[in-house]
Amino acid sequence: xxxxxxxxxxxxxxxxxLVDAAAVLPVLAAVAPAVLSGTETANVxxxxxxxxxxAVLTRLRAAAAAPGPLTVYLxxxxxxxxxxxxxxxxLARTTAATVRYTALPWHWxxxxxxxxxxADAALVVDLHADAEAWRYVAERGLDCGPNAAVYGRVAPAxxxxxxxxxxxxxxxxxxxxxxHRPPLLxxxxxxxxxIAESGAGRDLVFAHPPTGLPRPQTPTPPPPGASPHLYxxxxxxxxxxxxxxxxxxxxxxxxxxxxxxxxxxxxxxHTVISxxxxxGRHAEAADLAARYEAAAVRAHGPASDTALHWAEVxxxxxxxxxxxxxxxxxxxxxxxxxxxxxxxxxxxxxxAAADRAHHQWGRIRDSARARELGPALAELRxxxxxxxxxxxxxxxxQLSQLQAAAR
Length: 407
Hints:
Serine Threonine Protein Phosphatase 5, Tetratricopeptide repeat, 2 domains, 8-stranded mixed sheet
């Protein structure tokens, strides 16, 4: 099965540019697709200094839905929006005042990887951050979700005149041009070794397994001639909960291993669901997600994070199955539960639910079903207009056309 590779290099075109992210693309493009992916064959999508966050989201969504392993190579610039102070990947037209509308929200990346299994989704990142974004990452990390491995670094603004270069990603690309892709942890180590002198003591380094949320630690310089240290990142617990124990270190870092585990680890349900979807067993995947959602509702209530997570998984599964009506209805329900629980109309999860309900409504081919769901979507858009101007007007216009055609 072929893999999928998304090469994304983005940074503002104006004076706010901290890094010349696109400079790494020629080096990455010179690497064979199979090497970039670590599979026998691969499809590669390249985005150089894109303008529109929705266009990037469309490409990311398609890549995340493709069968086979997914690797995202991301070089760019992190900034926080002024309203919610959440991290975004700045795009070509991004300025400090327009981050919310012209940059790619980091949580969009996390959300699109929701259904990816732990074994087949990876992010390799080389990000530069302004002072405010740097403090955010240092204190909170980057929430990449439970199902993606993330390797790379976040570097602070250099303070020198002119943009910096994506040195870590260039080192990764140079190593891959040898024609061999080692395990990503090893590739990460080798890339850090190549940039150790320039980044030691400053960069926030990510090297963690696909569980939990990465919390970076500023590394200390490795001793001369030694391989770079790896910095495990503690779990980032939800407010009001205790931290989970740290994940076990990578196998080659431990000194002893048992010959076989006493009890095999239970399989991640996301992995089971992803496998079912890729095999075309959509009903089986939906049934499993529904059972997990029902259990979460019984244990924690419908507005709990766990129950809402599985509700969102079911909405995505309906989309993968081509059921736009079911997916739209599920996203409308998720938005309603979040709003009823007191979440803000501009909270990222609320906006995401409204946007996805809107997107799926636009894909409904049955006019009667579209007319049925249109008023609920219009009511939601009245409360949650989202980031794109004219969303409510778009629903009202299309709904009027559907109603006129039915007369």
